[in-house]
UniProtKB/TrEMBL annotation:
Keywords: Amino-acid transport, ATP-binding, Cell membrane, Membrane, Nucleotide-binding, Transport. The keyword Membrane applies. It comes from Streptomyces thermolineatus. It comes from the Bacteria. This is Amino acid ABC transporter ATP-binding protein. Gene3D superfamilies: P-loop containing nucleotide triphosphate hydrolases.
Length: 258
């Protein structure tokens, strides 16, 4: 098997926002992130793809310190990730994360879900936080659902609320970990459209997704991961038409032909 070593960034990071240097992470004997070097520029949209178990979620989770790393450094906007306390809470607000499962508070209304972090972490005034929440809910197309509880919404609507909740913190970067993979097919597009719009608005985004249409139209760069490594990275056009490594070719043939 011929493996292509990590290529340099497709677009050199003029204004680096997220920088990982020589990051390694183990789960017991499993070396789940191996020598990860990655620089994401402000405003860049990076799509991460790769087989299950390749470390995509772990990569995302290390960037907002839901997982610690064993060695190497991660910096957001020039600052190393804080270890704990208020600084860590602020970091988590700076790095918005949207998961496959929506993780909304079930016993709070949609509006309260979007207000909560603003007041607790950002120390926003309650009235201002509510106004901002309503505007964001409007922006993601669920303005009329504000007073409902999450369970009363469809999966697609809940995921859009989760995006609004992350945006309410004025994040510097948004991480999406397979945000559409738990959704019924007819709801996938409404979530991808919100993500598309965010990308057009200049948000820095890291998106783990196998939605190739989204990758092609929104991503500046595609990272292909396998066995804890970034095996290949290129523009979407280059990656999808001319994958270089056998691992990427094999992976693409599986996801494109079903
Ligand atoms: N908390 C954990 N404890 C032990 N192993 C884990 C844990 N989280 C993930 N793993 C393992 O690490 C590897 C990478 O997982 P993950 O980052 O979730 O991959 P992906 O998102 O690409 O499917 C997998 O083999 C997975 O089983
Ligand atoms: Mg995953």
């Amino acid at each position: 098997m011929t493996e292509v070593s990590v290529t340099k960034d497709a677009a050199p990071a003029a204004d680096p926002l997220v920088v990982l240097e020589n990051v390694n992470k183990h789960f017991g004997a499993l070396h789940v992130l191996q020598d990860i070097d990655l620089t994401i520029a402000r405003g860049e949209v990076v799509v991460v793809i790769g087989p299950s178990g390749s470390g995509k979620s772990t990569l995302c989770r290390t960037i907002n310190r839901l997982e610690t790393v064993d060695s190497g450094t991660i910096r957001i906007d020039g600052r190393p990730l804080p270890a704990e306390g208020r600084e860590l809470a602020r970091l988590r607000a700076d790095v918005g994360m949207v998961f496959q499962s929506f993780n909304l508070f079930a016993h709070k209304t949609v509006l309260e879900n979007v207000v909560l972090g603003q007041v607790k972490v950002r120390r926003a005034d309650k009235k201002a936080a509510e106004q901002k929440a309503r505007a964001l809910l409007e922006r993601v197309g669920v303005g009329n659902q504000a007073d409902k509880y999450p369970a009363q919404l469809s999966g697609g609507q809940q995921q859009r609320v989760a995006i609004a909740r992350a945006l309410a913190m004025d994040p510097k970067v948004m991480l999406f970990d397979e945000p559409t993979s738990a959704l019924d097919p007819e709801m996938i597009n409404e979530v991808l459209e919100v993500m598309q719009q965010l990308a057009r608005d200049g948000m820095t985004m890291v998106c783990v997704t196998h939605e190739m249409g989204f990758a092609r139209s929104a991503a500046n760069r595609v990272l292909f991961m396998a066995d804890g490594r970034i095996v290949e990275q290129a523009s979407p056009e280059e990656f999808f038409t001319n994958p270089k490594s056998d691992r990427a070719k094999d992976f693409l043939s599986k996801i494109l032909h079903h």
